[in-house]
Amino acid sequence: MKRKIRGSILILLGLLLAFSGAALYAGYERQASLAEQRAEILLAELHHTMEERHLGGVVAEAPEGQMPQILLEGYALIGVLEAEEAGIRLPIIESWSYESLQYSPCRYSGSLEEENLILLGHNYHRHLGNLGQLETGDVVTFTDINGKIYTFAVASAEKLKPTQVEELKSNPYPLAIFTCTDGGESRYVVYCEKRDGTGN
Description:
Elements: H1 2-55, E1 70-72, E2 75-83, E3 88-93, E4 106-109, E5 117-120, E6 139-144, E7 149-160, H2 165-169, E8 175-180, E9 187-194
Parallel strand pairs: 5-8
Antiparallel strand pairs: 1-2, 2-3, 2-6, 4-5, 6-7, 7-9, 8-9
């Protein structure tokens, strides 16, 4: 009798764990879908605004310690990140926060002018979830809000622990992009070097 009760309890616990896992996954998928929709809206608005400003000859200045930016939907945007091989074309928010990351990838630190820009984003499929598909030599571009295009090539990639902040910030490359691995146990980082002909 006791064995039957114990067995029933274990089955019930297993079912509860399975249900909880399914609920968490469904919640993650809803969150990811919403984030992807928000990024698409921001990208469309940013593209339209950049075109208007370019036609009007408007040039944005960079606040001290920051990059040139446009304020849209309550967020300061600094440009567009593209990596065709990974299907990445996303607006970049100037300063990161947990709320901002629900909309689009963000600047973690540094700048293009200082050649130490670090970007981060969630590993949602339509955000930086395909970052790991990039291979050495793949082209990555960043178009700032004044229309200047910076062209890079993937140089290397590695996994870092969340505590390895100094290693991330002290990397020698002008552009680094990172996202969480599945489960959030580590950070996947892609380092990019400049290519000739950057800027226009």
